[in-house]
């Protein structure tokens, strides 16, 4: 069972399958470390097709060190119950590693700059760090979404059948 599957299992177990969908891919970076990318898409209004995307990027170095990067694509995440579900899922996942840290990256397409902040999370993911995750990271995960749209290598992890939220057909 690979790292991505492990992430998927933890996140899927914690989240409402009717609201969240999941995509993943893995590749080796030019610097020689493995990257497992895991997209969590939250649909908070299916009729209006309103979605928020979060991208977790787990980097595994040759010495076994791991860094979890988190990309948020929207400034707001109003539903606190859903937000707390995601926080708990991330805390559960991070607790599996020694000395974990969260890396926040923000890209400004106009200025062509990227900001990066590293947060150690030895005692779990604090509310302060979690609030930072929902700052304005709109453009940070475009390359991943574009990759998903342009190739068929990314695969959606389907929810369990009994968790499926029926979507009304549009006429």
Layout of helices and strands:
Blueprint: H1 3-14, E1 20-28, E2 34-45, E3 50-60, E4 66-72, H2 80-94, E5 101-108, E6 113-120, H3 127-133, H4 142-150, E7 155-157
Parallel strand pairs: 4-5
Antiparallel strand pairs: 1-2, 1-7, 2-3, 3-4, 5-6
Helix pairs in contact: 1-2
Explain this structure:
With 171 residues, the protein is of the alpha+beta class. The protein has one domain (3-162). Helix content is 25%, strand content 34%. The chain has helices at 3-14, 80-94, 127-133, 142-150; strands spanning 20-28, 34-45, 50-60, 66-72, 101-108, 113-120, 155-157. Strands 6-5-4-3-2-1-7 form a seven-stranded mixed sheet, with helices on one face. Helix 1 (3-14) runs antiparallel to helix 2. The protein is globular. It starts with a helix and ends in a 14-residue tail after the last strand.
